[in-house]
Design goal:
Number of strands of chain A: 40
Strand order of the largest sheet of chain A: 8-11-14-17-20-25-28-31-34-37-39
Oligomer: homotrimer
Shape of chain A: flat
Number of helices of chain A: 5
Structural class of chain A: alpha/beta
Distance between the termini of chain A: 62 Å
Chain lengths: 351, 351, 351
């Protein structure tokens, strides 16, 4: 990551924050409240770090209006300090520009069309009829199979594999080890023997999508697997065939989405969420970590399904009891009936 | 994926389906009921799509006998329409043939034996004493370390890593990012410090096995890790050292099988199943998604272990209560004893 | 893996075990009790294999003093036979030495400093200002981006991706498909649109760390992600930004650790453990498989959170009941109150 120098007033202008203090202060780096020194800007976006504000040595702090009085130095005041920090950080630490051209060690098919401003790194393989847009970076050791389309300013960091016909939009960021367009897991059963169902669909990824390291996205069986604009996927995620992920949905690491499930816009999946196949998840639906989702959830809201860890000796008793919970309900019902406490049973006749 | 043209009668012959209608109809493509047009064949294998049958524009539909009356066009009638669709699709969309030869950019050890009909793609590394059979495809940027054996017509799509001595059978399909033969996780403890146990076993994979993107299969510690004929593994699966997976078992994505566990034939593991080490799973055993398997299951059947997601506010109460379930059992027992409802307690003296 | 020949007395000396029998016996291989023959050493470290001891054909057996009487051949007696086996195995089957030099097909930046005793394999990419220490092996098709530091005798097996600025210590072992230094999953929300937070920290890995196939370790957001000496990570593990993993902690496959969590020394995480972000896990804490950890655990001990698999028909009833467990507590409380069994309710007023 390269570095730039700004004066504080430029950062205020660039982010829309309100400047309090000396706008000519030079800023070279963003860092934590604790580590910051002269030339650094830092931020306060989480109240657990508020005690560190008074003693920070930073040249400036990004914070909310409510923390301004306690700030010992220059400030950028923002309604969303964490967002302001993200924008300041992007200004101070911009991605390096592509170095246009194709490395001599890359193997490029003659029919591939590579924009003159794009960078194709060493030891890449670019297949027939591939289209690579302006300002794209194909990092080292990546494989781009035939008929793939990569939109302008998208960046494959390194060792990415894009299978035949995959389409990726503009300004995407794809981390090492990602595989896009591998066959979906389609199998028909012939008397106990699995017969492969050819996977004929593609993968279509919108603009501004980020895909984390070693994540896998399978091609559709007949239609496409689709990831819409602004969706963000963390590492080691499985996206099965025919899945559709809505715009601006964020999925944390180790999650898996089974085939033909549709997820709406602005959803969040915490780490290790598993969503079964053929479900419909609406917009603004949120799942907590390690949830198993077995039903469609059209309605916005928060859903959870997991059993948080407890001391193993407690857990042993709990698990031993859970297996007998049905019997416990029956015993309670017998007590209620026997002793006249049967008002509940009358109200819940199916119980 | 390449394409072929057949007439409908040829597809009936090729799949064993019964032809109803005009056998000379040319068929170029398989697609969905909804999208199909002239020259397309489609299929009805899931009753949720039955309403689309009447209005399909397909030139032919694969379906069961019971749906024939409602079919507005030519038909292939099959007892297993989904299987028939798989076979028709394979006929219409065959894998491209290998392009025999070794790409000039590949690095091949002098002692490697590569069949003249095999294809070794650009930027592959082929180690000493490797054996590559007839019609094999080693896709771009794959690494095949020394003493690996790859059986006839097996295909490594791209960026696959096969470690020393791995043996793969015939007609296997290995997707990008797969690692086979990495060291198992063998550690001995020396007063708190982990000492590596050398992993000296191999990996032996049968015929007709498919292995999904970024799946990892560790070599055995002393014996081999074994995956038998026709087993199908989805993406991002972990197979630990000394595991044995029986023939025609299918494992969905994100599952993990710990060391020295044996899984029988014709099993299915739904996504994110975790199986502990040193277990014996019999034939025809099926696990639902995100199950944790902590015991051997010799008997065929279906097993589950997970807590499906519910609204978070409900889940909070449930989880809070589950921790106290042991106490609840004791309270119910006290009620039963106190009020003479102790017939249950007598029948279950250990409760 | 190469092989060496020792006489039994040399193995006793090399491991500190007590020799019983003929020290001149030549030993060429370590294998199982069942498969061992002349020239083989085997071990008994798990009582399930004790019945095989009497009939072993091995030239020597590693075992505890208590099993010596039943041993039909030479023995190495050790207080920790499994550890002794690990050490004997390392002597008999040492890693091959690096073949010093850079393969002609590797692409190496002019500013990279590669020790003369290091091996850089075919089709590797080594970036600007990379430092590679003595005896390092960079296996085929690996990508080492700029400013990476690799300590002496560390081995990247193959197809590893190390992103900019990553630092790895000495004697580490990194398996194929590993990605280290990918961006953390840092996102700020701007009215529903995710804005990337630049990930400016690094990754610092200590000495004697092993990292399994396709595991991903993200770089820190502002500080470093840290993995301390002797930690062992299995396959397909996710380590998020700013995580710190203490020395000699072992993490089994498919586990995930969310951002900014600290794990102490000598911990163990069984397979598929998920740890939420911003937690503090102390030393000597142990989690069983598929645990979800949502709270800090400062205290040494064993924790579990999961619902082991049971027959699906039992599970259906259990899950149906669990959702109503809160209601059951209330029904029991009503029974207690109604019938005077309210001693419990008085003791637990919040229940």
């Amino acid at each position: 990551v390269s570095k730039a120098v700004f004066c504080l007033a430029e950062l205020a202008t660039g982010t829309g924050a309100r400047l309090v203090g000396d706008g000519t202060t030079p800023i070279r780096r963003v860092t934590t409240l604790e580590e910051a020194g002269e030339g650094d800007i830092t931020f306060l976006a989480n109240e657990r770090y508020r005690p560190q504000l008074a003693s920070t040595k930073a040249s400036a702090v990004i914070l909310g209006a409510g923390d301004l009085d306690a700030c010992p130095t220059n400030a950028l005041v923002s309604a969303n300090p964490y967002l302001c920090y993200a924008r300041v950080s992007a200004l101070l630490h911009p991605q390096p520009s592509p170095v246009p051209g194709v490395h001599a060690s890359a193997v490029v098919a003659p029919t591939a069309r590579i924009d003159a401003t794009a960078e194709v790194g060493p030891l890449c393989v670019i297949g027939e009829h591939v289209e690579i847009g302006a300002g794209v970076v194909v990092g080292p050791a990546s494989v781009v199979q035939s008929h793939v389309h990569i939109g302008a300013h998208t960046r494959l960091v390194a060792s990415v594999a894009l299978c035949e016909g995959v389409r990726i939009g503009e300004r995407c960021l794809v981390h090492p080890g990602v595989v896009i367009g591998s066959d979906g897991f389609g199998l028909a059963n012939d008397g106990g023997v699995w017969v492969k169902v050819p996977q004929l669909g593609g993968v279509v990824i919108g603009n501004d999508v980020e895909i984390g390291a070693n994540t896998t996205i399978d091609r559709g069986s007949l239609r496409n697997t689709v990831i819409d604009d602004g969706a963000k996927l963390d590492n080691l995620i499985q996206v099965a065939h025919n899945v559709s992920i809505g715009a601006h949905t964020a999925i944390a690491a180790c999650s898996g989405i089974a085939g033909s499930t549709t997820i709406g816009r602005h959803c969040t999946l915490a780490g290790n969420t598993g969503i079964a196949g053929h479900l419909e998840i609406g917009d603004d639906v949120h799942f907590s970590g390690m949830s198993l989702v077995t039903r469609s959830h059209a309605k916005a809201g928060s859903y959870s399904g997991n059993l948080p860890a407890m001391p193993t000796r407690v857990w042993r008793r709990v698990i031993g009891r859970i297996r007998h919970i049905d019997e416990l309900f029956q015993r309670v019902k017998r007590l209620e009936l026997a002793w006249g406490q049967n008002s509940h049973a009358r109200e819940n006749p199916d119980d």
